[in-house]
Amino acid sequence: MAQNLVKYLLESFPLIKTKPEKLHIISLGCSKNLIDSEVMGGLCSKSGLQLVEKSDDADIVIINTCAFINPAKEEALEEILSLAEEKKKANRKFQLVVAGCLAQRYGKELVSQIPEVDLFIGVGEVGNIVKHLSKLNEGKFRRTAVISKPDFLMTSEHERVLSSTAVSTFLKISDGCSNCCSYCAIPSIRGKARSRKTDDILKEAENLAARGIKEIIITGQDTTAYGLDLKSHPSLSGLLTEMAKIKSINWIRLLYAHPAHITTNVLETIAASNKICRYIDLPIQHIDDAILAAMGRKVTSTQIKEIIAQARDIIPGVALRTSLIVGFPGETPKRFERLLNFVREIKFDHLGVFTYSREDGTTAAELKSQISEAEKERRREIIMSEQAAISNAINKKLIGSIREVLVEEKSDRTDFAFIGRCRRQAPEIDGITYVKNSQAQIGKIVKCKITEADDYDLFAEIIQ
Question: Going edge to edge, which strands form the sheet with 350-355?
Fold first, then answer.
């Protein structure tokens, strides 16, 4: 009788478990997507699910996908199909959920094409993840795609799951984008720009500081558009000023500053605070005026050059990072040469290059004068080769200088025991600093002397 009752309860109420289900989350793409994954992880953990580090150990696997450009879509599909093959094995039983931008953009079509995926959910469903996972166990559940309006905006009440060793993390001050650049699908995927309230952002920053975070990296699709959509019109400079008052935060770093929106106030705020890294990520995408206009960037080459000169004047020693797109429709050899000469002239500290990706539903996809993939890649390699030499020369000049270094993890090198970053290096996108002292402590900020340098990385020893 007792066994029959247990069987009845498990069949009728599938959420009743003898042990918690194990969940693994795979996060692809940018820092904004990573934060969504951390929010989902927090919500699931709070609901009783057990987070595990390997998909092999999981009862449920969530792939939080990116769909910004073709390589990101290809990476996401490869990951999905790999796990789909795993599901076919006799000894592997798990539920597969695809979330994020790829699901938002193509989920409804993919339902019929990848039957191994149990559920597709769009970016607007991040806050509802627990509800969706609970339905997977219902007897009447049918495979589906839940694609709602992309209007989710996290708050400080969402406790993110961070690595236990994390000493640096991203903080998303807004979501979505209203710039509508002609090559970009983000506004159609993530919706219009939505800023969080200043008090809520500061509360999250305080929560992160209480968890031992030493560096906060400000992120969003366009951080310099922060507050423009709110009635109170809070400013980015005001937010940075208030965040710098949080005692246990040591470094604050600004990413995704649009050249059309960055202001003198923001530059002066960075210069005025020792906590705010003298580092700006300023994605310009191109320098040719015809290309900038076709891209819908709302900024001219003259204005870009003025902003860079102003940043270097107001913030002495500022490290400037940019990203470029080569092979945009209509990028003639002369226009590409203009971009290459600009890179040689400005000498950015850090630079990344994307080849133009022809995205469905964007204005640029319909433009004439599309360029071959081979030519796009050739142009990318030319600029990256040029930048490697520029970066090497800049890094060599740092030899002998004294830098603060945030120690983040152990190194696999015998001569340099630890890996960290100095203020001029953002995680994942820039180089790193190798630290020689074997007694260094993870999570500590130490003064180091730069002793060696290569194209992208620095090598240092701690000053006792």
Answer: 168-172, 215-219, 251-254, 276-281, 319-326, 350-355
